[in-house]
Design a protein that fits this description.
single chain; about 160 residues; 3-stranded antiparallel beta sheet; alpha/beta; about 25% strand
Length: about 160
């Protein structure tokens, strides 16, 4: 549970010759707790949220200090706004191999469509859990862009307006 994702992500970083710093810490579930434990600003965290419309799945990555706008996600995926919903904890585990709070932005058990909010690129450094609630990574955001480009992600605006 989650260990395979940690190894998959480390292997991906290594294959692209990227420079992450791996962090071990107390177990965290919320983005707020993760930022506090890691010693970084909340906005530097990447929050990965799994959505479904009942038959399709997508991970939406947004800055951890923001809230996702389900309608914008549904629009970009051409899903019905009445059908889109956040995945239940057991669905998250089944599709990603991770518990809620440990889902990374990429490297999931199953191949899942990935969306990335443009505001993630406003940070010099990005941090996120890599499959376990006790394992995180800190990486230059420009290096995350390299991974995202390789994965053919969909970029856009997926944040709720205030």
């Amino acid at each position: 549970m989650g260990k395979e994702e940690v190894e998959r992500i480390k292997k991906e970083f290594s294959s692209l010759n990227l420079h992450p710093t791996y962090l071990k810490h107390e177990e965290v579930i919320t983005s707020k707790d993760a930022a506090k434990t890691r010693g970084f600003e909340l906005k530097q965290g990447i929050k990965a949220i799994l959505f479904t419309n009942g038959s399709n799945w997508a991970i939406t990555n947004i800055p951890a200090d923001k809230k996702v706008d389900e309608k914008k996600v549904a629009d970009i995926l051409s899903w019905s706004k009445s059908k889109i919903r956040m995945a239940k904890p057991e669905e998250v585990f089944e599709k990603t191999g991770c518990e809620i709070g440990a889902v990374p932005p990429f490297g999931h058990k199953e191949k899942i469509k990935i969306l990335v909010d443009n505001e993630i690129y406003n940070n010099e450094i990005s941090t996120f859990n890599i499959g376990l609630r006790t394992d995180s990574v800190k990486i230059p955001t420009k290096e995350m862009k390299i991974i995202f480009n390789k994965l053919s992600i969909i970029e856009g605006d997926f944040i709720k307006s205030n």
